[in-house]
Amino acid sequence: MKILVTGTAGFIGFHLAKRLLERGDEVIGIDSINDYYDINLKYGRLAETGIQPEQLRYGMPVQSSAYAKHAFIQLKLEDRDALLAVFREHRFDCVCHLAAQAGVRYSLTNPHAYIDSNITGFINILEACRHNPVRHLSYASSSSVYGLNQDLPFSTHHNVDHPVSLYAASKKANELMAHTYSHLYGIPTTGLRFFTVYGPWGRPDMALFLFTKAILEGSAIDVFNNGRMQRDFTYIDDIVEGVIHIIDRPPQGNPSWDSRRPDPSSSKAPYKIYNIGNSSPVRLLDFIDALEDALGKKAQKTMLPLQPGDVEATWADVRDLMADTGYQPATPVQEGIRRFVAWYREYYKV
To answer: What whole-number distance in Å separates Cα of residue 21 and Cα of residue 57?
Structure first.
């Protein structure tokens, strides 16, 4: 298929693009390459797929030197006219929209970045799909949408009307916007609530990256909620396999959906929401223990309270995804951390 993947300079988008190319799909990648974190890491990811930074010119396609069926365009999703031009030229079969302004804590100090990228950018994607029909639009949501919900494991059949960060609110808004376009225009849309993705080429603002850097440098790590956090850490390869299963399976309307007892995960429209996680939460202190083992070095810990916008625990109920697609996460956290550390040491020569 011919697939647009937004966010291909980002963590999940980079891995997904590589996997799609390896199975023979044609992939057009888009990313703004903003400076939310080190752009050199983003350039490094692009180089891995044959896109050289010195070739980049805003809005101009760059052909990959590694994959015949891959091209990349540096583009802001807020640039509506340029985005529509890309859709008109390429006539995509499917779109996987992963580009977004990420980060819970950053949303407390830079709220407008989330409106620009996650709201304005997403409506531009929806409008582009409306006027240039695609078989399927899949997009990144987040486990953050569960907010004040304390029913574990988190289920897509739960109500998620009480987010605790603007980032989470923007992702909930994306789900609502997608449903509207599925209902009005028949666009098949699937939202994917990712749960704490980690692995090689990961984001520098995530705990595993921050902890690894600090421990190797002999600096203290900040351990929030005094280490009593639990996260459903999910290895990147498991995430990517799940996303590919979804791309290949556009949703159908749910004929048994009942407005008197509405199921938030589906609709009479071609609309679906899935959790995508490991479904095996890990205590933060146990995660740190596994990292210490992989590094062969102990961490200095600064114990801190729960931060605004954070939740104490996440745990994905993935039974629907498993039943519908055969999704089966297979990477234990100890193995995933070992692979990340091996990549980190090689990439940063430490």
So the answer is: 23
The end-to-end CA distance of the chain, in Å, is 40
CA dist 256 → 179, 191, 260, 263, 267 (Å): 17, 20, 11, 10, 9
Verify whether residue 198 is a known catalytic residue.
no
The pLDDT tens digits of the residues spanning 109-157 come to: 999 999 999 999 999 999 999 999 999 999 999 999 999 998 999 999 9
Burial status of residue 210 (CB atoms within 10 A of its CB: 0-12, 13-18, 19 or more):
middle
| Distance from C-alpha of 240 to C-alpha of 7, rounded to nearest angstrom | 14
- Nearest 5°: CA angle at 39, between 349 and 142? 105
| Residues ≥6 apart with Cβ < 8 Å to 137 | 94, 95, 97, 125, 126, 129, 178, 187, 188, 189, 190
Q: Which of 167, 181, 235, 274 is catalytic?
A: 167
Going by the DSSP 8-state scheme, the letter that residue 55 receives in this structure is G
Q: Tell me, what amino acid is at 87? A: F
